[in-house]
Known about the structure:
Layout (H helix, E strand, L loop, with lengths): L3 H22 L7 E2 L5 E2 L1 H17 L4 E4 L3 E3 L5 E9 L1 H5 L6 E8 L2 E9 L4 E6 L5 E2 L2 E2 L12 E4 L10 H10 L2 E4 L4 H7 L5 E4 L4 H13 L3 E4 L13 E4 L2 H19 L1
Parallel strand pairs: 3-5, 11-12, 11-13
Antiparallel strand pairs: 1-2, 3-4, 5-6, 6-7, 7-8, 8-9, 9-10, 13-15, 14-15
Amino acid sequence: MLDLRDALEFANQAADGAGEIARSYFRHALQVEHKSDDSPVTVADRGIETFLREQIERAYPEHGIFGEEHGVQNLDREFVWVVDPIDGTKSFVTGHPLFGGLMALLEHGEPQLGQIDMPAIGERWSGIKGADTTLNGKPVTTSECKHLASAYAYTTDPILFSGEKTPVYDMLRDRVRLLRFGGDCYNYALLASGFCDLVLETGLEPYDYLPVVQIVRGAGGVISDWNGDPLNVGSSGDVLASATPELHAEMLRELALLRAAQAA
């Protein structure tokens, strides 16, 4: 039987090594390539993921791996590690310190462990099922915000809300008290620590959202897709995270109203 605390200790050690690699490349001249979806990738992304895969294969050879840069390996295993070596590569290549390393451990597809490591600023959020989320070892909790009209919200990039999703962005902008942009994975960390109340994103991949699930839950928050369903490898990539169940329910109602209006 896997001990999640042992798995978290492993994840922390792996993140220490990954962070050293990230800092060695950060704010240095890098050749930036572009993938098929036009997202940037660097030797740092690929090098960090290679390092993490080697660590996982050595410590847990029976586990599967789902990584952004090097794909899927044994996804049908009971335990699968999910890895995003640099979440926020656009920030990384432009010298912005709010990029992060993400790891999750799934059991039968359900997130049991999550980690957000911010190597440029020395902050690390960790969460395992059944325990409090921590920032650098100290427990954190979400805010008590229950209403959209009082909420401080984040979304990474309003440009992503295009086409039929444009009304979703308009609704978010109009309903919340304060809306800020950028941040990528750091937004969920801020939510877990009580500094913002809601995060709404679209177009994410499993390695973007699965590592933050247990971070949000372990701090007392709620996270789901836009229909209120639990996140898994097959989710659409539309993600809502909220500080409280009441706030989450209000935003889900607003999203449902928009869907109904579009279908009418």
